[in-house]
Amino acid sequence: SRELLCIVVLVSAVRQFCYDSIGCFSDSKPWAGAAIRPLKILPWSPEKVGTRLLLYTNKNPNNFQILLASDPSTIEASNFQIAKKTRFVIHGFIDKGDESWLVDMCKNVFEVEEVNYICVDWKRGSQTTYTQAANNVRVVGAQVAQMLAMLKGSDGRAAEEVTRLVSVQRCN
């Protein structure tokens, strides 16, 4: 009698979620399924990550104003000044964007320059497992990019001019 050899091939389909304003996210390489990221985890939705963009300026160094990357009127109604540099600070894993160290950093910056200072708070998305938070920060990055694109288009200025005025800094 013949023996039948069966080979079972498990095909793992790439999953992808898309969000109108910030694009698509997949669980394909390099984000998952690689030796350094073996787990296939997708980032949470923007609503679940709960990113908040908290604006501090020299006019409001103690109280933030909330900016929405999807709503230009929040910039117009704020103390944001297009002619000033804009600095972003984004906290890391398990931290919070409304912690005192961020406000203290902001106050120190205001002692030496007049800037728009945006604290990116994604505490709901960061206070989870490391693997999930590492994927959630992809959504945060897309939201910051969305805000930068909106800032480039505000006040009718040419994109090159606003790009020169906006600086993004990473702090550890």
UniProtKB/TrEMBL annotation:
Q: What is its EC number?
A: 3.1.1.3
The record's subcellular locations are:
Secreted
Which ranges does the record mark as transmembrane?
Answer: none
Q: Cellular component GO terms, alphabetically?
A: extracellular region
Q: Which residues form the Lipase domain?
A: 16-162
Signal peptide region: 1-16
Gene Ontology molecular functions? lipoprotein lipase activity
Q: Which reaction does it catalyse?
A: a triacylglycerol + H2O = a diacylglycerol + a fatty acid + H(+)
Q: Which Gene3D superfamilies match?
A: alpha/beta hydrolase (3.40.50.1820)
GO biological process per UniProt: lipid catabolic process
- Name the InterPro entries on file: AB_hydrolase_fold, Lipase, Lipase_panc, TAG_lipase
What are the UniProt keywords, alphabetically? Disulfide bond, Lipid degradation, Lipid metabolism, Secreted, Signal
Question: Which class of enzymes does this protein belong to?
Answer: hydrolase
Q: Would I find Disulfide bond among this entry's keywords?
A: yes
Which family does the similarity line name?
Belongs to the AB hydrolase superfamily. Lipase family.
Q: What is this protein called?
A: Triacylglycerol lipase
Q: Which organism is it from?
A: Bos indicus x Bos taurus (Hybrid cattle)
